[in-house]
Amino acid sequence: MSIERYDIVIIGAGPVGLLLSTCLARWGYKIKHIDMRPVPTVTGRADGIQPRSLDLLRNMGLKRAIMANEPAKVYEVAFWDPAENSKGIHRTGTWASCPKFIDARYPFTTLLHQGLIERVFISDLEQNGVKIQRPWRITGFSSDGVDKHYPVEVSIAHVDGDEQETVRAKYLFSGEGARSFVREQLGVGITHKDPIAHVWGVMDGVVRTNFPDIKMKCTIHSDAGSIMVIPREANMVRLYIQVASSTDADWNPRKTATTEQVQEAAKKILAPYWIEWDRVEWYSVYPIGQGIADRYTLDERVFMGGDCCHTHSPKAGQGMNTAFLDAQNLAWKIHHVESGFADRSILKSYEGERKLIAESLLNFDSQYAKLFSQRQPPAGEVGHASKHATGDEQVEENEFIKMFKASCEFTSGYGVAYDENIFNWSDSHPAKSSLFLSEKAGSTTQRPGRILSPATVTRVADANVVHLEQEIPLNGSYRIYLFAGKPSVTKKAVDDFAANLKKKGSFFSSYTRPDADQISYHERHNPHSLFFTINTIFNAPRPDIEVRALLPELLARYFDHVYADDIWDQRVPNAKAAAHAKMGLSEEEGGVVIVRPDGYVGCAVKLVEGSGTVDALNEYFASFCTKSFGGGDRAQL
C-alpha cells in the first residue's frame, strides 16, 4: 500500500500552526494538518492582537473577518495603586497603548477570544482545500531519508480510537504548545530565563461594577494583591490574578484557587469599588515561567514555533503575536526553497531570526517588570513619555521613560529587529556595491531587518489614497519599491533600471514565470515573476503622472502599482514628497528599497543612471538565490 506524501505535516491548530498552514495553502502546497482537540478553541486562551499583527492580518486579507466579531479595542492603559491612609486604590496615571512616537496604522490592541480568530483562519484554509483533521495526535516521526524528496516519516493516530496513519513529508512542524511531543522526542531543552515562576488565575466573564476603568486595560496594585483587567468582546472582561509566586514562603507550583476564591480576591483588590459577576465564561489556573527552547530545528526539516518554543507572563500579551511572526517567517522561506528560488541554507535563518526575537522579548519582559515594581511612574512623567518629539526638540529621558518606550515597541510588535544576515544587508554582506544605502551612515532611514516605514500615497490609476506598505499582499514575493523622485530628474535612471531588469541574467529576468505569455491581463502583482512585485512612486502630483508616457513597458505593466507621493505627513511636515522623506531618500533623485515577503526591509540602493542599481541588486540576490547574476557569488548562511 502506497504511503501518502505531503509537502508539510503541521501538528496543532493554534495561531502558529494556522497561520503557517494558511500561507502555504494559498501558495499551492499539499498539507496534512492535525489537532488533538475535537473542535477549535471554545473559550479562553490568547486574546490580544497587537498593532503589528493587525497589519499582518490586513496584509493577508483577514482583518475584516476578524473585526466583524466586534472585538474590544484598547487605546489606553490605566494604572491603579494603593491610596493613602489605606483607603483602597486610586488611579495614578494612564498612557496610550500605542503612543504617537510609534508610526502605527492601528494604535490599539484588539481583544477577541482565540477561538473566533482560529475560525477565520480555518475558513480560509477550507477555501484553499485544507481541512483540519480532528481529533488526531502525533505518535512518532523520523527523518530517515529513505525517500530523499520526502525525508520525514510521520505517524499519527485518532485520539479516541485505534485508527492510525503513516505519511511522508518534506517538512514537519510542531505548533503543539508548551507540552510538545515533537520537542521532547528531539531532546530539545527549555532554558528558563527568569527563576521566578508564577501561578495565575484567569477568568473571563460578564460583570457589574462601579469601577470606572472596567472598559480599559488596567494594572491594579493594592495592599490586598494585584490584578490585571482586560476588556473583551461581547461585554466580557478578563481578569488576571496572581495566585502564587516562587518568592512566597509557602510556594507551591501546583497551587490552585476556585472561581469563588478569585472573585473574593478581586473584590478586595478593587475596594472601595464593588464588582459582581452575571456569569463566568471561562476560568483556568496555570503556572507561568519565562522559558525558551534551546533550538527551533535540528535539521531544517523538523521545525517548531509558537508556545512550543517560548513561554512568558500573560502580562506581556505576546504569545499569539510572536507565534504569528514565527509562522510568517518560516512560511516564505520554505516557499522560496521549495519553489527553487532560494538555496536550502536559508532555512537556518528561521531559528537565527525568531529565537533572537524571543530572547529579546523575554529579557525585556524581565527587566521591565523589575523596573516597574521598583518604582511607580507619576502621571505627569507618563504623559511626558507619551509625547512625540518633533524637529530638533531634545527630551531628557530617565530610565523609566526609556524602558517605557522600549516596552511600547515590543508590545505593539514594531520592536522586532532582525540582525544582519544574508537577507538583511550590512557592510559585512557579500554584496559590496558602493550604491547600497545605510541607516548607520545616514543615507537612509530604513534599517534592514526592521519593518518598512508606513507611507500614505495616491494610487495613480484611480486616485485612491492608499497605504503603500499594504498595496502588495503577503503573496511570497519580494517587494521592489522604486522611489522615482522627480520625473524630470530621474527619467534616464528609471529607464535604465527597467532595461537592466529585463537584461538576460538579471535577478529579475532569471525568475520569469514559465506561463508569462499566458498570464491574465488583470494580474496586478506578479505579471512577470512569482517572486517580485514592483511599486513605482513619483514625487509629482497625481494629475501630472501619465504612466505609459513616463514609464518603460516593463514598469508600466504594474499599472495599479504606480503612485504619486503627494500626501502630507505630520512626521515629515516640511517634506514635499513625504514617502520619499520617510524612507530617508532624496526627494529629487529617489532610490530603491527591497522589502522581504514578510514586510521587513532587505536593503536600500541608490537610483543611478546606467546599470549600477541593478548590478547592486544582482549581488544582493545572488547571495542566497539558486542562480548567480551579474557575476555575483552565492554565500552560505
TrEMBL record:
Q: Keywords, A to Z?
A: FAD, Flavoprotein, Oxidoreductase
* Protein name, entry field: FAD-binding domain-containing protein
Source organism (scientific name): Friedmanniomyces simplex
Residue ranges occupied by any Phenol hydroxylase-like C-terminal dimerisation domain in the UniProt entry: 416-627
One Pfam family cited in the UniProt record for this chain: Phe_hydrox_dim
User: Domain FAD-binding: where?
Assistant: 6-364
Q: Does the keyword Flavoprotein apply?
A: yes
Q: Name one GO molecular function term.
A: FAD binding
Q: Which InterPro entries match?
A: FAD-bd, FAD/NAD-bd_sf, Phe_hydrox_C_dim_dom, PHOX_C_sf, RIFMO-like, Thioredoxin-like_sf
Task: Name the family.
Answer: Belongs to the PheA/TfdB FAD monooxygenase family.
